[in-house]
């Protein structure tokens, strides 16, 4: 005796049951289902689930490897140049947004003649399916200046406060960096890694005054004390700062009296040369921790 299987009428299920199904389905599988047909995408879009309206969508922008849109640890869709496709005969044509493109269904890599268009289309498709903003951005060291410029322009048009931003400054231009500071807002974490362009000069704006949990700057030689005084942040880490002993002492006194950085709980500064600690703590109740004493603490961003 032989048995045959027939397709299961998933989208004929009641809305309540569909919600339970999608709640038990991982985000990457939800994207795969949504690409099956227009009806599948529409049903998923208008069916409530625990995956929606969350701050968990992330873009990893890179050049040598495909850029990826993720949901926490789940890779949803990747974007690559069409010329990097090994064998297009084994790719399936799927519609993403207004474009029909080759997709490797084993790894969900999409291939585009215009990679930047692909990044935008994939981001907007995923945001539409999950009814959520992409709020986490990781721009790696091999992202090109044109890619960085494009994503900055796209982010500015969203007019939202993002959650987390990591930028390797290897290929960012001074023009784009100034545009970034003028037009972006982040309410949790900002990390700028690597050296800023040698031509970069800080321009006065409200970027640092926006409340956030964590700021990490690898290269802070451009900073002045006036910049640090305006940082409205819980946790500040800046390396290679040019501040003098007296400037740090003045800042600590203002912070201690509540005149500067009202949110600040943790400050870590790196200096190109040793400080005179006596000058730094002059007039403060500073206590030197004996050698061998280790203090541990937790940094809570929210």
Short structural summary:
By secondary structure, this protein is of the alpha/beta class. It has nine helices and twelve strands. Helix 2 packs across helix 3 and helix 5 packs parallel to helix 6.
Structural class: alpha/beta
Q: State the helical fraction.
A: 25-40%
β-sheet strand percentage:
15-25%
Strand order of the largest sheet: 4-5-6-3-2-1-7-8-9-10-11-12
Helical stretch tally: 9
Approximate shape: elongated
* Whole-angstrom Rg: 24 Å
Q: Could you state the order of secondary-structure elements as H and E?
A: HHHEEEEEEHEHEHEEHEHEH
How would a crystallographer describe the biggest sheet?
12 strands, mixed
Q: Which spans of ≥5 residues are poorly predicted at pLDDT below 50?
A: none
Number of strands: 12
* Straight-line N-to-C gap: 62 Å
Rounded mean pLDDT score = 88
Organism: Caenorhabditis remanei (Caenorhabditis vulgaris)
InterPro entries: F-box_dom, F-box_Sdz-33
Domain F-box: 7-54
Protein name: F-box domain-containing protein
Give the SSE layout.
Layout: H1 15-23, H2 27-34, H3 38-45, E1 57-61, E2 67-71, E3 74-81, E4 92-96, E5 99-104, E6 109-112, H4 115-130, E7 134-139, H5 145-158, E8 161-168, H6 174-183, E9 185-193, E10 212-217, H7 225-230, E11 233-238, H8 245-256, E12 266-269, H9 277-280
Parallel strand pairs: 1-7, 3-6, 7-8, 8-9, 9-10, 10-11, 11-12
Antiparallel strand pairs: 1-2, 2-3, 4-5, 5-6
Helix pairs in contact: 2-3, 5-6
């Amino acid at each position: 005796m032989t048995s045959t299987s027939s397709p299961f009428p998933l989208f004929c299920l009641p809305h309540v049951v569909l919600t339970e199904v999608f709640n038990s389905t991982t985000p990457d599988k939800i994207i795969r289902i949504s690409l099956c047909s227009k009806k599948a995408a529409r049903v998923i879009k208008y069916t409530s689930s625990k995956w929606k309206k969350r701050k968990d969508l992330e873009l990893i922008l890179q050049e040598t490897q495909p850029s990826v849109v993720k949901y926490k640890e789940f890779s949803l869709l990747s974007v690559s140049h069409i010329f990097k496709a090994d064998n297009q005969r084994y790719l399936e044509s799927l519609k993403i947004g207004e474009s029909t493109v080759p997709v490797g269904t084993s790894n969900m890599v999409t291939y585009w003649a215009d990679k930047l268009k692909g990044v935008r289309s994939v981001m907007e498709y995923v945001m539409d399916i999950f009814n959520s903003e992409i709020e986490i951005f990781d721009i790696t060291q091999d992202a090109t200046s044109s890619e960085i410029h494009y994503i900055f322009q796209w982010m500015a048009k969203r007019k939202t406060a993002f959650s987390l931003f990591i930028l390797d400054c290897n290929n960012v231009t001074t023009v784009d960096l100034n545009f970034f500071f003028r037009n972006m807002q982040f309410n949790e974490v900002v990390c700028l890694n690597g050296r800023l362009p040698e031509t970069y000069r800080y321009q006065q704006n409200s970027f640092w005054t926006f409340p956030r949990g964590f700021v990490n700057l690898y290269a802070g030689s451009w900073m002045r004390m006036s910049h640090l005084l305006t940082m409205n942040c819980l946790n500040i880490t800046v390396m290679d700062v040019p501040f003098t002993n007296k400037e740090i002492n003045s800042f600590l006194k203002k912070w201690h009296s509540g005149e500067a950085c009202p949110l600040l709980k943790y400050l870590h500064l790196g200096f190109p040369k040793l400080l005179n600690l006596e000058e730094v703590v002059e007039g403060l109740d500073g206590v030197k921790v004996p050698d061998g004493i280790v203090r541990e603490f937790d940094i809570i961003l929210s």
